[in-house]
């Protein structure tokens, strides 16, 4: 069994037992490794210690239950193996910056640093990304014209949006030359609205004379972390997961604005070219 297979086996054991009283020793035994070597290998391949991974996965699933169920906070805490609500509240506040009751009362959906269950694809991407540091850039206001849609689970809508927009883009006046194509993701203000608003757009000099079939959007001046995604477009979600779930939580940066965007410039060679590059911009402070 390879080290990667061992970690995947350990993750599967953790995911099956998130609501059980398991220890890191239990996980290392299930993976068939000594505790010392298991902790080193798990951390090296996932970027998280086993203890940290178990804690963040439990907090993530507990937060989802808080958002999507009416269960008592104490009951949810006990379900995910927190001894009492006080311990749960402290861990929750450290992880997400607000306590469980505040999350339930909050009218605005923040981009919380949840940790999804890691897959083989996540782990391979993490190994590729882990030594890459983003560039910090300051950008002036950006004017965009394009099309938007609300995307929930059907991500095929994004490809359909791009296909529709490509027929309209050539008629947009005041396009910035050389052309820059953008995909912007805005998360909704309300907790009750599931999904993301996606905008496919080109950068323009101003928002005058917009075709009534299209929409204009002005992104404010901001500081961004600039990451580069290299590879197939369909795999960009893995890079976003790495950024939001593994890289950002280990830094002092704080998200400032409810969106991110991807830019397709001269190094973008098409969605199916493994050498293609796109730029990801995350607005932050810190």
Protein architecture, described:
The mean pLDDT is 91. With 286 residues, this protein is α+β, with helices and mostly antiparallel strands. Strands 1, 2, 3, 4, 5, 6, 7, 8 and 9 form a nine-stranded antiparallel β-sheet that branches. It has ten helices and nine strands. Helix 1 crosses helix 2 and helix 8 packs across helix 10. The protein has two domains: 116 residues, Arc Repressor Mutant, subunit A (Orthogonal Bundle); 151 residues, Regulatory factor, effector binding domain (Multidrug-efflux Transporter 1 Regulator Bmrr, Chain A, Alpha-Beta Barrel).
Q: How many distinct folded domains? A: 2
Q: Give the termini separation.
A: 42 Å
How many β-strand runs?
9
- Give the count of helical stretches: 10
Order of helices and strands: HHHHHHHHEEHEEEEHEEE
**Sheet with the most strands, sense and barrel status:** 9 strands, antiparallel
Question: What is the 3D shape?
Answer: globular
Helix content: 25-40%
Q: The CATH topology of the largest domain is what?
A: Multidrug-efflux Transporter 1 Regulator Bmrr, Chain A
Q: What is the typical, i.e. mean, pLDDT? A: 91
Query: CATH architecture of the largest domain, please?
Result: Alpha-Beta Barrel
Gyration radius (Cα, Å) is 21 Å
The first-level CATH class of the largest domain is given as Alpha Beta
**SS-based class:** alpha+beta
Q: What is the strand content?
A: 15-25%
